[in-house]
From TrEMBL:
Pfam families: CMD. Signal peptide: none annotated. One of its GO terms (molecular function) is peroxiredoxin activity. Residues 58-124 form the Carboxymuconolactone decarboxylase-like domain. This is Alkylhydroperoxidase AhpD family core domain-containing protein. Gene3D superfamilies: AhpD-like. Keywords: Oxidoreductase, Peroxidase. PANTHER family: 4-CARBOXYMUCONOLACTONE DECARBOXYLASE FAMILY PROTEIN (AFU_ORTHOLOGUE AFUA_6G11590), CYTOPLASMIC PROTEIN.
Length: 184
């Protein structure tokens, strides 16, 4: 159970209720981090705008690479909500979610490509405390994905670190998105 309760739809205001309805239509449920953020109207809106902008802008990397890096970050931080939601997003992208169970074996598992392995190692290095990113690693990523792709990868991993750490701190756990999402 989250450390702060979600704002019920009846108390979310007209625009909040509208956002809740859109979220339910898209994901099957209102994401608990969204409903909890409604306690702070400014952060609620800035978070939504930032998430939508990132979603629209992050188009340079293949979805497989981007989503596996985000998923790996969530697992390293230990955010059950992010892992649940990320699994659903990968399924909605048409990606193989069965391989997520084997992410610990990414280095040898044949379902992971070399590009995905680079992205997972980078997610690990960025998520470590302190970070362990090296010049050689960045050069290898730039050679693989180009500068724009490297920047996109860096940004999505950084944002997932923020999300996962905030959700973990607030005690937000999985909601059953993968099973509940009506969009198949």
């Amino acid at each position: 159970m989250a450390r702060i309760p979600a704002v019920p739809e009846s108390e979310a205001g007209v625009l909040g209720r509208f956002v809740y309805r859109l979220a339910r239509k898209r994901f099957g449920l209102v994401p608990e981090p969204v409903a909890i953020a409604r306690h702070h109207r400014g952060l609620f809106w800035s978070g939504l705008v930032a998430e939508l902008a990132l979603e629209k802008a992050a188009t340079r990397l293949p979805a497989r690479v981007r989503e596996i890096a985000v998923y790996r970050t969530a697992t390293v931080v230990g955010c059950a909500w992010c892992v649940d939601f990320g699994t659903m997003l990968q399924r909605l992208e048409g990606l193989d979610v069965e391989r997520l169970r084997r992410i610990a074996d990414f280095a040898t598992d044949p379902t992971y490509t070399d590009a995905e392995r680079l992205a997972i190692r980078y997610a690990d290095a960025m998520t470590a405390t302190p970070t362990t990113v090296t010049d050689a690693q960045v050069a290898e990523l730039e050679a693989e994905f180009g500068r724009a792709g490297l920047l996109e990868l860096t940004q999505v991993i950084a944002v997932e670190n923020q999300r996962a750490r905030a959700n973990h701190a607030l005690g937000i756990v999985d909601q059953g998105f993968d099973a509940a999402c009506a969009v198949r």
